[in-house]
Amino acid sequence: MIGFETIGNATITVFDDGPVLTTDPWIDGKPYFGSWDHAFTFPEDQKNNCRNSKYVWLSHGHPDHIDESSFKYFENSIILIPDHYGDRIFNFFKNKYKCIKIKSNVWFEVSKNIRIKSFADWNQDASLLIEILGKDIICNQNDGSLLGWRKTIKNTIKPYKNKFILKLLNWGDADMINIYDENDKFIPPAASNKMPIGAAYTRLMKNYGYNFAIPFSSMHQYARKDSFKMNKYCTPLDKFSEEFSDKYGELLPAFVKWDSINENYEKINCIKKDIIPIDPLLFGDNLNDQLDKKDKNRLERYIKSFKLIKRHFGLITFTVGKKDFNIKVSDKKAELRFETPRNSLIQAVKYQIFDDLLIGNFMKTTLINCKSLYPNFSPYVAKYGDNGFAKNNSQLKKYFNYYKVNSADFWRDMFFAKTESTVRTIIGNNLGVYKFAREFKQKYF
Q1: What is the pTM for the complete model shown?
Q2: Mean pLDDT across the stretch 294-311?
Q3: Measuring CA to CA, how many Å separate 208 from each of 69, 148, 218, 307, 443?
Q4: Is residue 37 a contact partner of residue 277, using CB atoms and an 8 Å limit?
């Protein structure tokens, strides 16, 4: 067989007689400190196809894309890693696996009939073009937004016959949504608007010229008792086709095997997983545990290492075991309060993966005198800081200078990204304005 199959959360396996490439293989583990689990079963045949792939490509550092528990399957594979600034992922894997860092926007041959192009972006994410037999092209956009590469990628895919888009499009739960205001009132997330995903796919296909779309990077559910309530914001599989128009192409099922020679597909049978909420204790999180002196020192050093957040925030408070620990970073009025179990918090600090706490959605975040974690906290801590090692002005300047040089469409995409961040901060979750803004972005950007 020559073609590909989609499986799991964000995994593509590509075949040239046998499996030659697998992307972002989350197979076994429960990422985000046990908060996430697969929404559907991962069949044994597909596990074996992943295991037998010559190459494994990893887009970015989120654990539903790089899952430590799954890497026992890939001891004999060659790991392909995008050229992210800071090389955090590459440096982690290079001493344990055969590892190649691949340059953005350069073809890399994985077999006689298949080649790929990887595109690293300034949000520490990456997208992948997969060409099969010179006529099929897959744009694996996963969680990213093609930052710095949109026009280049759009022009690259134009000549192909069959053009597939695989991208995270859902109601919007795969982000920090367990958020409260200063009156301790839950702030309904954008996901509560339940925007029709099929309509979004239609606009995306029209704008970029894709003629096939596949639901992707959205096949998870919440597993912990303290995050289980967030399942109501997960997009059911039957909602991905809502308001989809076939004017520009076809929306395929989430789990398919595509035959590039015969240009047809068959559906892979995956069963919806029933789940019983898991006690956080099983992941080391005792809600009564409190921070000791060593924990507080480590946490304070960590938070204060992000020099740029003091421009916007004054006090960062961690509530652990019902006791507050305040970290003053400036005299600004805006404050953040994070209520979370000790073990996961200290692990996040130790391994510099604060984003895993945010996306796990068992941590309660309270906004005081501010409207959002964007754009003044999350990117500086989770993207540029933890993953890009850029925590002060001079480091951040070098960080973005790298992407200016290494991203073909940097200035255009940066303009729109800054505009989007500003609008996102202003409108919050106003349904009417949010719907207009989202449709405007998808239509013109």
Answers
A1: 0.94
A2: 98
A3: 36, 15, 21, 39, 10
A4: no
Question: Is the previous residue joined to 25 through a cis bond, with omega within 30 degrees of 0?
Answer: no
In this prediction, residues 64-83 reach a mean pLDDT of: 95
73 near 29, Cβ under 8 Å?
A: no
Which tops the pLDDT comparison, 16 or 417?
16
Is residue 11 a contact partner of residue 25, using CB atoms and an 8 Å limit?
yes
Q: How many residues does the chain have?
A: 445
Contact 256, 166 (CB under 8 A): no
- Which helix (H) or strand (E) segment holds residue 433: the answer is helix 431-444
**272, 219 Cβ separation under 8 angstroms:** no
Strand pairing class (55-57; 18-23): parallel
- Alpha carbon distance 445, 432 (integer Å): 20
Model pLDDT for residues 334-374, shown as the tens digit of each residue: 999 999 999 999 999 999 999 999 999 999 999 999 999 99
Amino acid at 168: L
| Interatomic CA distance for residues 226 and 249, integer angstroms | 41
Q: Could you give the angle at which helices 410-427 and 431-444 cross, rounded to 10 degrees?
A: 170
Q: Is 327 helix (H, G, I), strand (E, B) or coil?
A: strand
Give the largest Cα separation in the chain, rounded.
65
CA distance 193 to 436: 12
Other beta carbons less than 10 A from residue 186's beta carbon: 12
Residue 444 has pLDDT above 70, yes or no: no
In this structure, which amino acid lies at residue 113?
Answer: N
pLDDT band at residue 416, thresholds of 50, 70 and 90?
confident
Identity at 156, one-letter amino acid code: T
